Each structure stands twice: as structure tokens, then as C-alpha cells.
Predict the 3D structure of the following.
Amino acid sequence: MSAPDVADLHHRVRLRVPRAGFALDVDLALPARGITVLFGASGSGKTTVLRCVAGLERAQEGLVQIGDEVWQDETRGIFLPTWRRPLGYVFQEASLFEHLDVQANLQFGLKRTRVHGAAQTLSAAIALLGIEKLLPRQPAQLSGGERQRVAIARALTTQPRLLLLDEPLAALDAARKQEILPWLERLRDELHTPMLYVTHSADELVRLADHVVLLDQGRVVSAGPSAQTLSSLSHPVLQGEDVGAVLAAHIAEHDSRWHLCRARFDGGSLWMRDSGLPVGQAVRLRVLARDVSVLSQAPRDTSIQNHLPCTIDEIVPDQHPSQLLVQCRVGGSVLLARVTARALHSLGLRAGDAAWLQLKSVALLR
Amino acid sequence: MQAIRLTLQLATATTLLLLLLATPLAWWLASTRSRWRAPVSALVTLPLVLPPTVLGFYLLVLMGPDGAVGRLTTALGWGTLNFSFTGLLIGSLIFSLPFAVQPIQHAFEAIGPRPMEVAATLRARPLDAFFSVALPLARPGLLTAAILSFAHTVGEFGVVLMIGGNIPGQTRVVSMQIYSHVEAGEFTQAHVLSAGMVVLSFGVLLALALMKRRVGRVMP
């Protein structure tokens, strides 16, 4: 991990918690904007980090500094109880108060926070998560997805300085997950509240993360902006079929005749199915390594639409000995390709060589 | 009539006081990690297994002129509490304590720590969270505690026999009155009172059960 840039990084979390089997020992510098995803297998200590930040657990050695506020500093004996920390917390399972209807659930935190524009905050949270129609209902009458949307809105009503989300989708089935993800993306794009998001789902990581912290056995293995972290070969965050790159891009052009749109990223642009997003809209593109092939020269006469000139940065063995992972630089971006070792050998390509990438498929994420 | 009124007074007072006493005690038992938890829990449950006469006997000795409590109350100018309504009330409270504590404790345990954590993340102080979250969620447990305390006090005999005696208007509750009638061979009066007890008790239990079902429907 390189030294954090002080101007850009506003939150500091340093914790040491002895646990059965291993010690949680992390030192995180988190950006003051966007979603930071804490990613790792079950039992890697992700949730403990979140609970310590919230003050629900007390780390023996700990420093939690959010902007200019110190929530915990054991060297100075400072430990704010949870209720005095201006945070929002979304728990894994439905955590709505069962004795209150949705409206009263939303007002619970609002009543206890002295903030300006409480009414606007409430209506903004309701609108942001699209729960107007649910207000008079009891929690028992809501679906799992609706409950989590209400829980997220409730966490926002207190105008938190930091929103903590502990696997908010883990208890939902695949269809419900897909129902909530767009709301979370909207949160990321429209709110100025930084979020710390715990998950072990590659899908959520790729779609939501601006910044990634990879945890293993209580330690930070890798941390950084998501485009950089996800395409790193030294500390692979994603495994198997999920290996791939994520590119920040924006919609540059529509081709209405063929129902396509072009998205530009740092280093080139790619054509994909038009999903109706306006020109200029910021998007992220996910390119799986298995959908990328490497050519020694520019291709001709192929049905594949997307080709990019690149420089090969690094070649590493993949999980199966027959395959290699190739990290390629395209302008200011990095793409990964999974290729057969024999093919690369017969093309005679090595690190440092110029080559072409052929992309069979690109997924557009918001 | 006097005996019935006295019984209802005793049961009502016992129930209300027990809810006040048992709720914090149950909360402590449900949430503490103190090493005193087990001994306190055992002590609270003790009246459940002891014969009422044992309990009554100790209370009689304790509250008597030579007992610790008796000396204190005498010094305070209240006289001894044995054979008085207050003494009877104290006996009932101790006797029915486990019937109030256990349902409330189970209710708190079933709620778990999560709702209190959620309340804290929504800026509720611990006491605020207790009253606005834990207590409303534990309502079914509180109702069960009320039903059991009331019913148990109405049906109490052994403790009353030991420390209450049989003073009309003061300590002669229905169960004692029935006993006296039977002793005196007045079977008709005993029949009337006994049937009255059955009907009354059934009515109270039914009302509370209906109330509980309504509460339970709001909170599954």
C-alpha cells in the first residue's frame, strides 16, 4: 500500500482486535467520497471492522477518525457511544422495528437528530428509495427487498456523515438483489455521503465499488481505487470466471440504426448494446478476462466489434496450467485477458510487446 | 364479598408492583454477562420449587418481632407486618416473582441485541431505546407475566396461611374464607365462593388471553 494522499483521504480507521484463530489488524485510509467496498471471504473480519467503526464493538487498540471528528482514540481514551456517532447503519438482515409501521420507522432516527431541514431529508430519502407507497404498511407486510430499501432510507434520515452497509443484500434472493442494486447505484451517484460497504459478492463489488479494500484473515491484502485494484495481478481480488477489469467511462455516441452506443474510456472506446442512457452519462464497463483474446496484429473481417491496440504489461499463470492471464495497458486503462498458454507461445508475445485485444463482450454497469 | 374484594386488591397490587420490579430484573438477567447472573437467576426461581409453607415460615420469622425485618419496621413505628395486608403483599410479591420475571426475561432474550443496536445507530440513548424499542417489542411477555402473577396470587393459599392468618377485611382472602367455611361445615357458602372463584379466574384469564392475541397479531 502506498502512502495515502492526505488531501484526498479523510477517514482513518486503525483497529486491532484479537479474535479466535486470528487477529484483526487493519489500518485504512478511506476516501471521503463514494463507496468503499470491504471485500473478503466470510470470517475475514469485514463485519468486525464495520461494527468497530460504528462503536457497536470496541477495539482494544483503535483509532476511528471521520473527517475532523474523532470517534475513537484509545491512546487518548476517547470512545463515543454509537448513539453519539453521526452514522447510518444498514444491517444484513431486516432490522426494521416490527412494532412500528414504515413511517414511524423512518421517523425514529429523525426525531432523535437535531438537523436542519428534517422534513426535506425525510422526503428526499423516501423519494431516493422509491418507498412512498410503503409508508402506512407494517414491516411484516413488506418483501425482503422492500424492507432493505426502507432500512436504507431510515439510515439516511439522520443525515449521517458516513453510511455503513453490512452485506445489505446477502439475505435476499438473486431477483431481489437485482431489484435493489439500481437503488444503491443511485445512492452512490446522487448522495455525497461516503459509504463503507461490506460484501463477499463479486457482482456487488464490481457494480458498486469506487474504492476497494481486500481483507484476508483480518489483514488488508490490497487497497485502492477499484479500476486499479480489480485489474491487479499481484493481489487478485476476483477469482475464476469473475476475473476481469472495470473501466470508468461515459456514453459518447448512439447509433440508432443498429441500436448500439459507444462508451469512451481513458485509452479508447467500445461499442455495446444501447441501453438508452444519454450522451455524457457516466457508466462503468465490465470486461471479463475470459471475453478478451489477444492478437499479434490488427484483426480484419471479424464479427467482433471491439478491438483495441495495447501494450502487454505482465503475463502470469492462471489457475489451470494451460491458461495464462495477460495484463494489457490501453492508454491509461488496464484490461485483463485469459488466453491459452500455447496460443500466446505460438504468437510469440511477451511482456512489453505491442498487441491487439479483441473483446467479445462488454457489460455496461451504471 | 369482603374476601373477594381483598383477593382482587391483593392480586392487582401484586401484579402491578411485580411488573415494575420484574422488568428491570428480567432485563438485567437477559443482557448481563456478570458472574452474579446464575446465582441471582437461581434465587429468583427459588419460590417456584419451594413449598409455599417454607417461604411463609421464613417470612413469618423474618417479619416477626424478633426478625430483622420485623425489628426494622417496629423501629420505624410501623409495627410488625405479619397478619397485615402489607405483609401479605410482600409475601405475594416474593411468591410470584418467578412467574413475572421468566416470561419477561424470555421475551427480552427472544428480541436479542439487534433492535437495541439499530436504535443506537439511530441516535437513541440506551434508556430511550429501552422504552421505545425493547419494552414495546416485549409486550407479549409482559402480558404473560401479568396473567401469571395475577392468577398465581388469586390462587395462593400456603403463604397466606403462614403469614396472613385469617383476619376478616385484612388478610382473609377468598382461599382462606373457603377453608374456614369447610372447617365449619358450611358447604353451601364454600360452594358459592368456590364457583365464584372459578368463574372470576376464568373471566380474567380469558380477557387477558384475548388481549394478548390482539397484541400478538400486530407483532408476529
Notes: Chain A is about 20% helix and 35% strand.
